[in-house]
Design brief:
The structure holds two protein chains of two kinds. Chain A is α+β, with helices and mostly antiparallel strands. Chain A has three domains: about 50 residues; about 120 residues, no CATH class; about 220 residues, MetI-like (MetI-like fold, Orthogonal Bundle). Chain A is built from 14 helices and eleven strands. In chain A, the strands form two sheets. In chain A, strands 2, 3, 4, 5, 6, 7, 8, 9 and 10 form a nine-stranded antiparallel sheet that branches. In chain A, strand 7 and strand 8 form a beta hairpin. In chain A, helix 4 packs antiparallel against helix 10, helix 10 crosses helix 14 and helix 12 packs antiparallel against helix 13. The longest helix of chain A has about 35 residues. The radius of gyration of chain A is 35 Å and the shape is elongated. Chain A starts with a helix and ends with a helix. By secondary structure, chain B is mainly alpha-helical. Chain B has five domains: about 100 residues, no CATH class; about 70 residues; about 35 residues, no CATH class; about 50 residues; about 240 residues, MetI-like (MetI-like fold, Orthogonal Bundle). Chain B has a three-stranded antiparallel sheet with strand order 1-3-2, with helices on one face. Chain B is globular. The termini of chain B are far apart. Classes of the chains: A alpha+beta, B mainly alpha. At the A-B interface, helix 1, helix 4, helix 5, helix 6 and helix 10 of A face helix 5, helix 10, helix 12, helix 13 and helix 14 of B.
């Protein structure tokens, strides 16, 4: 008994570990997108990469017009934030010819060349007079480097020299929401957003309307050729869109809809899939209900709107979410139908594909753009989760 | 014009039905004559039109004439079929006039202007939604309160709708429409729409149905067609029509510059043409055995010591086909097998499973374009997280185990042997959640009793999975596989965005997929006939793949039943 419970607990833990690992993989790219979209441009190219956006801290100093950047610098064995007041100070790395491992660093300005040379390990090195701890000693120059001069902003008398690149800057977590306004400015993402919103609303309501009527006719009204027509509808669901993309484009050219937003709306509101989905739902509604209504003298139109539509709310929501995603995320057809130069008619996906080339060296801007396109459907998903899952499964289980 | 005058008088409650019907007959006589005369005129003067347009225009007008003439005869005999034909003609005529009028007045293209002002109306959409919420909120109270809330909600919705229309500039739009009534054409179409509409109404009325002694079944059939008509018309114009046209275009050498000519199966022949030749040594030049003015070397292989070379007339097509199949072979298992595992774990009814399900589904709702931009930076070879993760892993292995692993520093997107793999990884990541949800739904429909019985019989978890879960999940697996294969065969956006630089075909054409090739042919080089042929080849491949899986599913199903 005891061992069984232990094993079950172990199994449960293992399951959670696997599930959490996958959840991490699924969420990480979105975290990365969000945090990078709030980073400073400089921060995005740092290696090793860091997830959270950070900004270098700085301090106001007397005698400096701009704020001065702060670094963690070691002074007397402890690290403290120090302001970088001077860069590129030429530094000599000196050593006693007897013990060349013990390097001390002194500004080259504080040393003077004697003109003499010594040979260490086969290399000829120059000899300098260097002031160390108030006494002048003869040392050899092993190498050169550049340091920065740091001052404690609170106590200007404390001074230190250190390699700027190897020092760690003082940083604070900060967000940079300006990325979003910059990308809106750069690529007209606000216009694309309202375009996408308008197109999506029209496509969703149009699809719901035609699918409702068509689904009702297929499910409830008998007319010659109905079943053959329904089979034809079913058969076309499988045909990929790319098969009709060329003649569709030619049709758009012929009727002057190419490069117009209407080409992203009207052809997309007649959905064989939606009709199929609504029909499948309507045939499950018992006939007795509408027979009672017919006896009361209601017309078909009234029956459809008063009885079928309220009953079909879940199916409508499912079809609505499905169509919403399709309209919001579609890319291939807008790419074909809308001219890349006509930015006024761009949808979000199209703007993003152009932004990809225009801001190829600013991940913070590109990912801010991506976030603008990705977040609205995600919010929609979080609120209407049930219907999304339904839309995924209804096609599998009922089809 | 006389029709109009009578129509406007037809408002009194008692209308003379017989006189209205004779009006309809008169209208159909006009249509019959107009159709036949128009057909002759269209055929003679339509020489400048493309032959397809000319033929269909003439046939359409002839049909209109004949149908109208038939309608005249049958309406006079009070035959119900006459009513049907009349309704058919007038409905189509009405729709045609209205749509043509909207097109002419620029209502469709005018939507672009709303793109500019739509942003101003968004606030009103929000208040309309609040109105809806208020209306729905009343449901929790008694009937009287419910009605009150509903009324308030409705008022808010109506006000917001008016506000929305004003904000987006409905008046400017209407003014633009009215001001384009400056030529005879809009007036003619409006008149046509009114006449077609009135005759349609005359024939549809209950009184007419009684005169023609319509049965209930006939009424139902007419209503059925009426309800289906918006859907069916759209389906014909925007799907079935283009589909047939696509087949026709694929038999022509249509491009944007010359008049298309019918070339039969030439496009298909060029696409599929391969040539095999034996080589005397594995390193012999292909030009010695192949006609290199026609064929490019595709690949070479050695069987039983004899080397062969394969040449293809359209090498890029075969490259695209190979890449696409490779993509399917990698991405489908990678997105289906983990999904099966995850679905089984989620089906254990532990706490928080709904949250996990939602998290896994999240990538499926995001736009591929956005996702690909994110992954482009994740795959970045110097600052990307994927290479950073690999570096951390190799460092860990080198310092903590006796192994010495070199950091590979993969140039994911710019190396021909990893670019497609990167696309596979990203796509699988995006598809796993959707498949998981499908599998989970399938798992939940398996009766629990079976597992209980198996546990009693002493079957372990693995045996239960193999003997119960897998067979009973077969229909779901079938559906998931088909969806995944169909989706993977059409991979395009993923490659188009993920692969950096100007050419998404990637290093060495290693990410040239079939749809990408189709896009480049059809919309960058405008060889639309050829592109259509590629599309049909792709369709038959998808169809074939589906058929094969369907067969397998069938046979597996019968094996299980036995």
């Amino acid at each position: 008994m005891h061992s069984q419970r232990l094993r079950r607990m172990f199994n449960g833990t293992l399951i959670y570990i696997i599930l959490i690992a996958f959840a991490f993989i699924m969420l990480f790219p979105f975290f990365y997108m969000m945090t990078t979209s709030l980073k400073e441009p400089k921060d995005t190219f740092r290696y090793p990469p860091r997830l959270l956006p950070r900004e270098a801290a700085s301090a106001e100093m007397e005698g400096f017009e701009e704020p001065v950047e702060l670094y963690h610098i070691e002074v007397n064995g402890e690290f403290r934030p120090m302001a970088l007041v001077e860069e590129n100070i030429r530094i000599g790395q000196f050593a006693d010819p007897a013990t060349p491992e013990n390097i001390i660093t002194v500004p080259l300005a504080d040393a003077s060349a004697t003109g003499g040379t010594v040979t260490i390990d086969g290399n000829e090195v120059d000899v300098y007079m260097v002031a160390v701890d108030d006494e002048v000693v003869e040392l050899v120059l092993m190498g050169r480097t550049a340091f920065g001069r740091f001052i404690d902003p609170d106590d200007p008398s404390v001074e230190a020299l250190a390699n700027v690149r190897l020092s760690e800057p003082v940083e604070s977590l900060t967000l940079r929401p300006e990325n979003y306004s910059e990308v809106v400015e750069l690529q007209g993402m606000d216009r694309s957003l309202t375009n996408t919103l308008m197109i999506t609303i029209l496509v969703v309501s149009g699809t719901l309307f035609t699918s409702l009527l068509g689904g009702y006719a297929f499910a409830r009204l008998r007319f010659p050729g109905r079943d053959k027509l329904f089979l034809l509808y079913l058969g076309t669901i499988m045909i990929p869109f790319v098969v009709i993309v060329t003649p569709m484009y030619q049709l758009m050219v012929a009727i002057g809809w190419v490069d117009r937003m209407v080409s992203l709306i009207v052809p997309w509101i007649f959905s064989a899939y939606g009709t199929f989905l609504m029909r499948q739902f309507f045939i499950t509604i018992p006939r007795e209900i509408e027979e009672a209504a017919t006896i009361d003298g209601a017309s078909r139109w009234q029956i459809l709107w008063r009885i079928f539509v309220p009953a079909a709310t879940p199916a409508l929501a499912t079809l609505g979410t499905f169509t919403f995603l399709y309209a919001w995320n579609s890319f291939f057809w807008p790419l074909v139908a809308i001219n890349t130069g006509n930015t006024d008619n761009h949808v979000l996906t199209l703007s993003l594909s152009i932004l990809r080339g225009r801001a190829s060296d600013s991940p913070n801007l590109i990912l801010a753009g991506a976030a603008i396109a990705i977040i609205p459907p995600m919010l929609f998903f979080i609120f209407g989760q049930r219907f999304f899952v339904e839309s995924a499964t209804s096609s599998a289980v009922k089809g | 014009m006389s029709t109009m005058a009578v129509e406007s008088q037809s408002s009194p409650p008692r209308v003379n039905n017989e006189r209205l019907l004779s009006l309809a007959v008169l209208w159909h006589i006009v249509l019959a004559l107009g159709g036949l005369v128009g057909a002759v005129f269209a055929w003679i003067s339509g020489e400048s039109l493309p032959i397809v347009v000319r033929i269909s225009l003439t046939t359409g007008l002839v049909l209109l004439g004949i149908l109208s003439a038939t309608a005249v005869v049958m309406i006079r005999r009070r035959d119900h079929r006459g009513r049907v034909i009349s309704l058919f003609i007038n409905y189509l005529g009405f729709v045609f006039c209205v749509v043509a009028l909207m097109q002419l007045l620029g209502i469709f293209t005018g939507l672009d202007a709303f793109g500019d002002t739509f942003g101003r109306g968004v606030v009103f959409l929000a208040t309309a939604f609040i109105g809806y919420l208020i209306g729905a909120f009343g449901d929790r109270y008694n009937y009287a309160a419910q009605q009150r809330y509903k009324r308030i909600g409705r008022i808010i919705i109506i006000l917001s709708a008016i506000g929305f229309l004003i904000a987006v500039g409905i008046f400017q739009g209407m003014w633009a429409v009215l001001s384009s009534y400056d030529s005879p054409m809009p007036f003619a179409l409006s008149l046509g729409a009114i006449i077609f509409g009135c005759i349609l109404w005359v024939m549809w009325r209950q009184a007419s149905a009684e005169i023609f002694k319509a049965t209930n079944a006939q009424k139902e059939a007419l209503e059925g067609y009426l309800f289906l008509s918006p859907n069916l018309l759209g389906f014909i114009v925007f799907f079935a029509g283009p589909l047939l046209l696509s087949l026709y275009v694929s038999f022509t050498n249509s491009d944007a510059f010359n008049t298309p000519e019918f070339v039969g199966l030439d496009n298909y022949a060029t696409i599929l043409d391969l040539d095999f030749a034996a080589l005397s040594s594995p390193n012999q030049l292909a030009s010695e055995v192949l006609d290199t003015t026609v064929y490019d070397e595709l690949t070479r292989f050695t069987i039983l010591g004899q080397s062969y070379v394969v040449g293809a007339q359209d090498k890029l097509f075969w490259t695209a086909l190979g890449n696409t199949l490779l993509f399917v072979l990698m991405a489908v298992p990678l997105s289906v097998i983990p999904a099966l595992l995850l679905a089984n774990l989620l089906n254990t009814k532990l706490r928080g499973m709904k949250v996990f399900r939602a998290v896994y589904f999240l990538p499926s709702v995001a736009a591929v374009v956005g996702i690909a931009l994110v992954w482009q930076w994740l795959f970045n070879s110097t600052i990307g997280y994927i290479n950073y993760g690999i570096t951390l892993l190799t460092d860990f292995l080198t310092t903590n185990t006796p192994l010495t692993v070199d950091d590979p520093q993969i140039q994911w997107l710019s190396q021909s042997d990893t670019a497609l793999l990167a696309v596979v990884l990203m796509s699988s990541w995006q598809w796993i959640g959707f498949n998981t949800v499908l599998f989970l739904a399938g798992l939940q429909s398996i009766p629990k009793v079976l597992y209980e019985a198996a546990t009693v019989d002493g079957a372990g978890a693995w045996a239960q999975f193999r003997k119960i879960t897998l067979p009973l999940l077969a229909p779901t697996t079938f559906f998931v596989m088909i969806t995944a294969v169909i989706q993977a065969m059409q991979v395009f956006e993923q490659v188009f965005i993920l692969i950096p630089g100007q050419n998404p075909a990637g290093p060495n054409n290693s990410t040239l997929t079939m749809v990408l090739y189709l896009y480049q042919k059809g919309f960058q080089r405008f060889e639309q006939g050829y592109a259509s042929a590629i599309a049909w080849v792709l369709f038959f491949l998808i169809f074939g793949a589906t058929l094969v899986q369907f067969r397998r599913q069938r046979s597996a199903g019968t094996a299980y039943d036995a």
